[in-house]
Design brief:
six-stranded antiparallel β-sheet, Phosphatase 2c, domain 1, alpha+beta, globular
Amino acid sequence: MSQPSSPSPASDPCARRAGRATVVGTDGSQVTVAWAAATETGLVRANNQDSYWAGSPVFVVADGMGGHSAGEVASRAVTNRFEELAADGFAEPEAIGEALLKAVEDIRHAAEVGPDAGIDAGTGTTVTGIALCERDGAPEWVVFNIGDSRVYLWRDDALLQVTTDHSVVQELVATGKITPAEAEVHPYGNVITRAVGFSEEPRADYYALPVLAGTRLLICSDGLSKELTAHGLAHFLSNNDTADAAVEALVQAALENGGRDNVTVIVIDVLDVTSSSVTS
C-alpha cells in the first residue's frame, strides 16, 4: 500500500498547461491528442480551491470545498494522485478507482498532520475527468464523475453533456419538481450530494465513449458551466480551432460574465486515430 502523500494547494491560480501526445496501444493502434488547460481564481473568491491535472492519458478537474485552505488541500490531493497515472501508454480503468481511494487517505492524513488547515467532515472536492484506455484492443475514453464538475463532448457540431451532476437541483430536475431553467437560479444550486472526502468512500459514475478523430472534449468546474449556457459553450468550442484558443476564450467569457467562482477548463482534441488493422 502506498504511503499518504502531502497535498499542497495549487501554486499558481492562473496556471496554464498545454501539450500533445501520441499513445500507442499493445496491438499497434495509435491515438494522437492535443490539449490545453487553465485555472483562474475568478473575480469574487479570495483564493482558488480548484485543481487540475492535464497530461496523457488522464485529464482531471477537482473543485474543492471547505474553509480556509481545506478545499485546496482536498482538490490537490485528488489531482496529485491522478498525476501519478501519467504515462506514455493507455491508462488502466481500475487505476481510476485506486487513485480516488488514495486521495481519500491523503485527505485524512492532511487532517491529522495539519489541523490548522481547517479540514473537517465538511471538507471535500468534486472530481471529474477522462482517461484514455483500451478495451479489446480498441481505444476508449473512460469518463468518471463525482459532484457537479462536468465533462462535455463536442462532435458533429453538437454539444453533449456526458456527466450528470450529483446535486440537489439535479435530483429535483430528474424528479420533475423543477425545470432546468429554474435549476439555474435555485437557492440550493451549489449543494452537491456526492464528493471526495475523508468521511465516506468515493462513489463515482463511469461512462464509456468511443475515441474518434475530430472530436473535442471539455472538462470544467462549475465556475464555467454556471457562467455560460450550453449555447455559449458550443459557440466557443466551435469557433476556436485549437484547444489552447478554446480554453482562453472560455475562461475569458466566464470572467466577463461575472467570474463568481473559481474557473477551471481543460479542452482535449482527438487529432488522429489509427487502428491496428492499418498499422499492422
